[in-house]
Design brief:
By secondary structure, the protein is an alpha/beta fold. Helix content is about 45%, strand content about 15%.
Length: about 450
């Protein structure tokens, strides 16, 4: 079966490489020439564990192109383009409809066009109306987690497929045949209509964001009353009806999905005349979390951060990715700089460091100067600082040489924005003279 993928970002590239590894011939199309040229050389433009190796292993079944004409004769075509939020918070569907318009002249009436992009309710129906009898549209939202996206592709917790009630049976059969690898692994399939499939994705992401916002707000109360949010989360998570995932208090959620999907769901409620109370407060709590954490830092220094220097550990929006979109760490850096502080950044992922360096260059060119410097060496980043801020939850921070850090820093203060340092280590550091603050924890 000849397949095609439109868009070679996080979703599209994983889909293309994953399908190739399952034995399918895949043509991956993108308008970005530099990205396609890099992929032809075997260099993925994004960092994901295992992706580069899979790209090399399956190069004989992978073809990268900037010519949409090369997609002709593909049987199943996956649309994996971005749907960023616009200035109002709505999902911008320009990339989706542009991709479909460019594809339409190539279609012969027997192709399946699969929307993997996260799109608002009604989008699949609109795309089908646009294509008419030229193709059959299927909704197949992605649920990849950046950092472990390759693993998620091969071991999904579910596969969601949305069909039209007017689709012939062979459309379903072809999709099941394409995904037979997952059927053989007894992965649950949710087979439904377009609208349900579209909402499943938004509902899932918003619910997870809501769990994080809830535990973060509870962390604020915990600090006031002397409770420990980590113990509270553990006690809650042992209840099978709740579960322990997404109950880690910190400086809030970010990334390429949660912010735009929560905002887009809020708009979908409004468009149907419903007040989106839970999604709205979920977003509001998250918007408050970084300023709340900044105030904790300011309080330690008497309310004045002017001239202070901080090591910011972790720069992307989560561990093991180079994605900077809506990074809470970088938002915190911006606020620190506005307070007159200097920030020395470090991340374990080289691609993240390089991406932030480019971002800093861009900001410096528009502001004449910018108070963030990224270092490739952790010890250099820590040297001479007035405080260490942990902004991304790498477990590796626990294995670093904190005894060496104590010699390098100017002021022994740790602000753990992810509660990632283990309790035994924290107690040891406090005994050695470090000041430690987490989010809602009681040391």
């Amino acid at each position: 079966m000849k397949t095609a993928v439109i868009g070679t970002g996080y979703v599209g590239l994983i889909q293309a490489v994953g399908l190739a590894h399952l034995g399918f011939k895949v043509i991956a199309y993108d308008i970005d020439i530099s990205k396609i040229n890099a992929l032809k050389r075997g260099n993925p433009p994004i960092y994901e564990k295992g992706l580069k190796e899979l790209l090399h292993q399956n190069r004989e079944r992978l073809f990268f192109t900037t010519s949409v004409e090369d997609l002709k004769d593909s049987e199943v075509i996956f649309v994996c383009v971005g749907t960023p939020q616009d200035s109002q918070g709505k999902a911008n569907l320009n990339f989706v409809f542009s991709a479909v318009e460019n594809l339409k002249p190539l279609l012969m009436g027997k192709e399946i066009v699969v929307l993997k992009s996260t799109v608002p309710v009604g989008t699949n129906r609109k795309v089908q109306q646009l294509l008419g009898d030229k193709a059959f549209v299927v909704s197949n939202p992605e649920f990849l987690r950046e950092g472990i996206a390759v693993e998620d592709f091969f071991n999904p917790e579910r596969v969601v497929l949305g069909f039209s009630e007017n689709h012939p049976e062979w459309v379903r059969e072809k999709m099941f045949n394409l995904y037979r690898f997952f059927l053989k692994k007894n992965i649950p399939f949710v087979v439904t209509n377009w609208e349900s499939a579209e909402l499943i994705k938004y509902a899932s992401n918003t619910f997870l964001a809501m769990k994080i916002s809830f535990i973060n707000e509870l962390a604020r109360l915990s600090e006031k009353v002397g409770a420990d949010i980590k113990e509270i989360a553990r006690g809650m998570g042992l209840d099978s009806r709740i579960g322990n995932k997404f109950l880690n208090a910190g400086i809030g959620w970010g990334g390429s999905c949660f912010p735009k999907d929560v905002s887009a769901l809020i708009w979908q409620f409004k468009e149907w005349g419903i007040e989106p109370k839970l999604p709205k407060v979920t977003k509001e709590i998250n918007d408050e979390q970084i300023p709340w954490f900044l105030n904790k830092i300011k309080k330690h220094y008497g309310g004045n951060l002017n001239g202070k220097t901080f090591a910011l550990l972790g720069l992307a929006f989560k561990p093991y990715t180079d994605d900077l979109r809506e990074s809470p760490s970088l938002k915190l850096a911006e606020l620190l700089i506005q307070e007159g502080a200097f920030v020395k950044g470090y991340d374990y992922v080289e691609g993240t460091r390089e991406n932030v360096k480019k971002l800093v260059e861009l900001k410096a060119s528009t502001r004449h100067s910018y108070g963030l410097i990224v270092y490739d060496d952790l010890n250099t980043a820590v040297k001479g600082v007035d405080g260490i801020i942990i902004a991304v939850e790498y477990k590796e921070w626990n294995r670093e040489n904190w005894k060496e850090f104590s010699k390098l820093v100017r002021n022994k203060a740790i602000f753990d924005g992810r509660n990632i340092l283990e309790r035994i280590l924290v107690k040891k550091l406090v005994k050695e003279g470090w000041h430690y603050e987490g989010v809602g924890v009681n040391i």
